[in-house]
């Protein structure tokens, strides 16, 4: 890759990584609160349902400034940044689960439960927010 292509790829990578980092940090903090206090009180499904709008609002608020900061303006580039952020998120989730002694297969199976599927749907929306928010047509 040379010249402009490299520059665009670099912008996408930096934007995707920054978007992931900000939303992951917020999710880590809110997820800790959800796990320790909310889940025991109202159950796992309602706890995820309560956390999800807050997380999506954080992603929505973070997306546009990050994409603007790194000059990622074209719809397809925003999609690429969102997909990179999603891949980083999935890797971080699996690593975090492993840190707490959860086997990868067990973690993957948890995504098939109602709370896990709701959370995964939110993560897919997280990936799509950069392209859905303030995007220009593909050039």
General description of the model:
84% of the residues lie in helices and 0% in strands. It has one domain (3-132). The radius of gyration is 16 Å and the shape is elongated. With 139 residues, the protein is mainly alpha-helical.
Kindly summarize this structure in a few lines.
The chain is mainly α and 139 residues long. The chain has helices at residues 3-42, 44-69, 75-99, 104-110, 114-132. The two termini are 19 Å apart.
Question: What is the average per-residue confidence, as pLDDT, rounded to a whole number?
Answer: 93
User: Ends: how far apart?
Assistant: 19 Å
Secondary-structure content class: mainly alpha
Q: What characterizes the major β-sheet?
A: none
Whole-number total of structural domains: 1
Task: Report the β-strand fraction as a percent range.
Answer: under 5%
Instruction: Give the % helix.
Output: over 70%
Low-pLDDT segments, ≥5 res: none
Shape: elongated
Rounded to an integer in angstroms, the radius of gyration calculated over CA atoms is 16 Å
Summarize the helix and strand pattern as letters. Answer: HHHHH
Identify the notable features of this structure and list them briefly.
139 residues; mainly alpha; elongated
